[in-house]
Structures
1.
Amino acid sequence: MRHEIEVELINEQGMHTRPAKLFVETAVKFTAEIEVSYDGLSANGKSIMGLLGLLAYRGCRLVISATGEDAKPAVEALSGLVNSGFNE
Amino acid sequence: MSRLTVRNLLEDAKLVLQLKCLAGAQNLWKDITEAHIMKAGLLLAGVERDAQPNAIIVLGQKEISYFEQLKGRQRSEPVRQLIDFQPSCIIVTKNLPVPRLLVTTCLDQKIPLFSTPLLTSRLLDNLESWIDENTRESMTLHGVLVDVLGIGVLIQGPSGIGKSEVALELISRGHRLVADDLVEIQKQHGNHLMGQGRPLVSHHMEIRGLGIVSIPALFGPTAVRDSKRIESIVDLEDWDPKKEYDRLGIDEQHRSILDVRLPLLTIPVRPGRSVATIIEVAARDRLLKERGIHSARLFHDQLDKVLSSRAVHPAKGIE
């Protein structure tokens, strides 16, 4: 199973350390493989350094995709997190 | 792969090629991505006939001198030969005087004709490397790239298997980190891969239990490097007792990235096994193999000899 969704980074800091940490903490709860793509790059959604490596700032549009049994709830949880502005 | 046209040569490669357009400016759309670059040479004399269409044809001192020694009407034949091959463009080097007939024919046929102050050898060199640089295939991969004893080792495996920890151990033994997690890969000269990390983050690592650490700050500037040719792949995986791992090392596994075939090692991870040591030994073994010494096969052959001689003379000992 594969699911993907496009989201916009709306929080002030963009993909900074704390948002990346929150993202990974949510991602590792799922068994699906998770990728986050931006600007032709795609990072492992379960790796903090990968997400930071995207150098994505406020306003950037990211594509979150998940492959695996729990792909759908994973994409929902992660897009919810991004859309909430990482609870900032 | 990005497509390049004659216009890119004229406009984007201005600094390295210094082309000036003499004719055919309205016809710069032709593709040069896989175009052959050729010196006109014997094309002019009508001897060579297998030029590829859309080639980039270069005229240097020899070709122009040949032209100049021809009289009047004789000159139209070599020009026709050139045009017949439908080159994507024609370049005259060294600011040599461009024969008027060539200019008028190119104007008439709308074939791009350029002149450059560069020497022929310099132009050919720059042209090839500029096209190569601008048509490189690239991609990003997850993994850690480490320079181990000069061998670029790309460590891959599922998240949480401990790639960063293995890399950290290699670094603390004096090997050099190139990129952690997000490795950008570029194919160069059609047959080798260069890997590099992302700006800012590539020389930092996230170690569970420690957080984000800066490798050059902790280990000094020699612990990192910006890019490295990728020469082998190591796949880490959880030890699966049911799976047969390579125990002899006689046959080699491979994996292709961007159609470049690289030797692949699959290393099972289990507590008490130092994966860093195994990778280091694998790099040493790779260096030996590059010098033509294949330890596993050599041992295999030596064993062969000893066993077959013992089969003939059972009492003989091993020398």
Note: The first helix of chain A runs from residue 17 to 27.
2.
Amino acid sequence: MHDTNLIELNNFCSQVRRDIVRMVHAVASGHPGGSLGCTEYITALYQSEMNHNANNFEMDGKGEDLFFLSNGHISPVFYSVLARSGYFKVDELNTFRKLNSRLQGHPATHEGLPGIRIASGSLGQGLSAGIGAALAKKLNNDDGIIYTLHGDGEIQEGQIWEAAIYAAGNKVDNIISCIDYNHKQIDGDIDDVLPLGDIKAKWEAFGWQVMEMNGNNMEQVITTLRLAKAATGKDVPIMLIMKTEMGNGVDFMMGTHKWHGSPPNDEQLKSALSQLEETLGDY
Amino acid sequence: MKEYPVLGNKDTRSGFGDGLTALGKSNPKVVALCADLTGSLKMNQFQDDNPERFFQVGIAEANMIGIAAGLTIGGKIPYTGTFANFSTSRVYDQIRQSVAYSNKNVKICASHAGLTLGEDGATHQVLEDIGMMKMLPHMTVINPCDYNQTRAATIAIADHVGPVYLRFGRPKMPIFISEDTPFVIGKALMLNEGTDVTIIATGHLVWPAIEAGKALAEKGISAEIINIHTIKPLDEEAILKSVAKTGCIVTAEEHQIAGGLGESIAQVLSRNNPVPQEFIAVDDSFGESGTPAQLMEKYGLDTPNLIAAAEKVIARK
């Protein structure tokens, strides 16, 4: 890809990261760690790789690629990317987690926030929903691709594996799923909470084609997504195992699970923002 | 007492299966999912007619509910089929978040509800499902009473936009609702006008209620018998109009007292017109193995208990 595009995408990420820390700071709640880690991935989807219509949101998304966020707690990154991609006004990020807001703590559809197609937050449900949307696309002769994103801790939920069996067994090959493999969950390191073992071997054994990438390297994310798109339509669902760093971009939030669900205080916000260039203008 | 000739003897689940078959021909948006109980749910004909619109998900009910929610994104009208227990308590959080909160147009179709599942015993005899489903915002809850009403309800819910819980059962029961009776969601069905006591029944308890009405008439008691098939939204107007006339009520259902139709009616009465009420329902107990008739007798869900409850509630006026 052109270097200029890569620079623009990384600039976009810097602004999204500013939005994330400002949003969770403003209401002293929310989940910055995973949001910061998945910034490149969601930016790459909405700013480069997905075919989608931000200005005229329709629930059915006919002819579009659709994204489902299964680990709904990383709503700050999702809201920021949606707003800055044109789904709703950037100013609305101000209402995150406040009373009467469309930007609920976890994504919801009931107030009609453009870009959200199903509620998520209770974990393990988004892969099934994505498969359903993928089946509807096949019935409608719609060649759009379904993308889903999951936390690594989330795949401890049994429903994920029900869905994994279904998708491979039924050749659901218009879905590209992704696991945010930051190796951390609320209570600590994955290996201290409930070890997942060899997740690549697990997904391959379940019949998925697995690709790996560094999720905090935009060039790798774009390259891998393009390989994954080229691999759709071949009878096999695709899983991206995306290594990321929880809290990426803010030095004191990296390398620990402690910022999974904790907001920065005033001083910490100042420090975080000093590390993130304001590229597109704060909301 | 109005006559209700028996038109046949069929299971309500066959009403669902036949309704789904009809929808397969009339509505291309309708799709069906089943969790390894296609024969029990009578979904085979739909599957044979529309293989591309039928999804066998295996023994994975949580995934089935999620896939159904996803299929609505793309304009489909999914009907999920499994036993009532696995349609509700097993997948309550999936229904709550992916279907009810997200307001998805999923029809959750649940067979083998209640004690009349019979010999399989309490693990499969869900008696709490109406309560769980009616507590969810956006959810419509329907429990039809015979083959014809179940068939009509199955077809009617396709035209209702929003999540629906449709509950039916396993054993053969008398058919007494005529084929041409329109099914209107949320509208009570007056079966017999009376003046001394209101009997409101749903599902498999409607036929015993009619039989109780006959026996009461022979004793000189005029029972008003109403079938409420839609537990949510509840036809409050029909309930209040009836008790204004009779001054007392018996409610009857194949469900726990807690969370059931009778509880919903008690709320309406306490807010508007408190009158004596007796509950024909299971009183805080699990079921057990036995034939449907034995179980309905043991747990007090039969005609003699309805007659006794009517006489008791009249005496409380």
Note: Chain B has two domains: 8-175, 189-315.
